[in-house]
Design a protein that fits this description.
- With about 350 residues, the protein is an alpha/beta fold.
- It is about 25% helix and about 25% strand.
- The chain contains eleven helices and 17 strands.
- A hairpin with a 2-residue loop joins strand 5 and strand 6.
Length: about 350
């Protein structure tokens, strides 16, 4: 397997740009979700309804839901009705951002960039997770570009203007890319995606089984403007990590030479899912539709302030909170479970 260079005319927009299609994988595996299966399906329905609301000018997006079982297919059809196309397909679990491709356009063609997927560093080897990206590419009518690099979509955040941000904890982890240097990884990312500069954060959230995915800690509001989280109270288990992230971002410049403007919203703080353990809860894992930026919430005191802090940063969208407590039992939230295909 080799990395295919990108010669010219690549279009990889920021996620606020028009999106043609969203793919997601409906919670299907009863043995993985156990008592949280139906609550997770209900949360999927709520956030997907908000996500698919047309813009005030009538712009829409297509929603494609993959379902791996008959129960899941029936659940998705009941919940979403005519708002989605439901397709039976095999996959391990719902994390479509990671198992799916990074879609871009090149020379007027849709390209599905597919990295090597190894179950988040060998933690979860589930049948179908390494092939479902090809299913999405085919449904999207996109050509495939295979890349000789282990990576997941949740590890890659783009500004739409030549800058990519990621974490060393993930892409330089020996459980993904042993023997590759930071420069090696940058070279492969630039060749595959056409980005001009890669920015590196050291580490992601504590207890994140993805080894520090960027979409839980840093997001671009637009080129030159990033958002991260500030600790929410003295018992926030992510205090040290979040403070370090903000300091690192303050020293960075993007592909155009702009010093990043750094904005913060409060983190959820300590979220207890019943066992007292630390969980990687984050308000950063939002997903953007034609009308709404749909933000994961967890019933914490930080919720209102986080939503309020995002409103001026997305002036052309509404900010909508939606519960993700049941989805979080699987390890992520809304951005993690969606994969978007940019518009024209």
């Amino acid at each position: 397997m080799t990395t295919t260079p990108v010669p010219h005319a690549i279009h990889l927009p920021h996620e606020t740009a028009p999106v043609r299609r969203i793919f997601t994988c409906w919670p299907s595996a009863a043995d993985l979700w156990e008592d949280d299966l139906e609550p997770a399906q209900a949360e999927f329905a709520d956030f997907l309804r908000a996500l698919t609301q047309p813009s005030e000018t009538g712009r829409k997006l297509d929603l494609v839901i993959l379902a791996a079982t008959a129960q899941a297919e029936a659940s998705a059809r009941r919940a979403m009705g005519q708002k989605a196309e439901v397709v039976r397909a095999e996959f391990g679990d719902v994390w479509a951002r990671d198992t799916g491709p990074v879609f871009l356009r090149q020379d007027g063609r849709d390209i599905a960039v597919r990295f090597v997927f190894n179950g988040w560093g060998g933690k979860y080897d589930l049948p179908g997770d390494d092939t479902v990206g090809g299913v999405m590419a085919k449904l999207a009518g996109a050509g495939e570009r295979r890349v000789d690099l282990v990576a997941e979509g949740g590890a890659l955040e783009f500004d739409g203007d030549g800058t990519l941000i990621t974490t060393r904890q993930c892409l330089l982890n020996p459980n993904r890319n042993p023997g590759l240097s930071e420069a090696d990884v940058e070279t492969r990312l630039k060749a595959a995606l056409g980005v001009k500069k890669v920015l590196w954060i050291d580490e992601g959230l504590e207890a994140d089984h993805t080894d520090g995915h960027i979409d839980n800690i840093v997001r671009f509001a637009r080129p030159g403007v990033v958002i991260c989280q500030a600790p929410a109270g003295g018992d926030d288990p992510q205090t040290a990590v979040l403070s370090s992230i903000a300091r690192q971002l303050a020293r960075m410049t993007d592909a155009k030479g702009r010093r990043l403007q750094v904005h913060t919203i409060p983190s959820p703080g300590r979220v207890d899912l019943g066992d007292g353990g630390i969980v990687p809860a984050s308000h950063m894992n939002w997903v953007i539709g034609p009308r709404n930026v749909v933000v994961p919430t967890y019933g914490t005191a930080s919720e209102a302030a986080a939503l309020r802090g995002l409103r001026p940063l997305f002036p052309h969208h509404h900010i909508v909170g939606s519960s993700a407590r049941a989805i979080l039992t699987g390890g992520g939230a809304f951005h993690c479970v969606t994969c978007h295909q940019p518009g024209e």
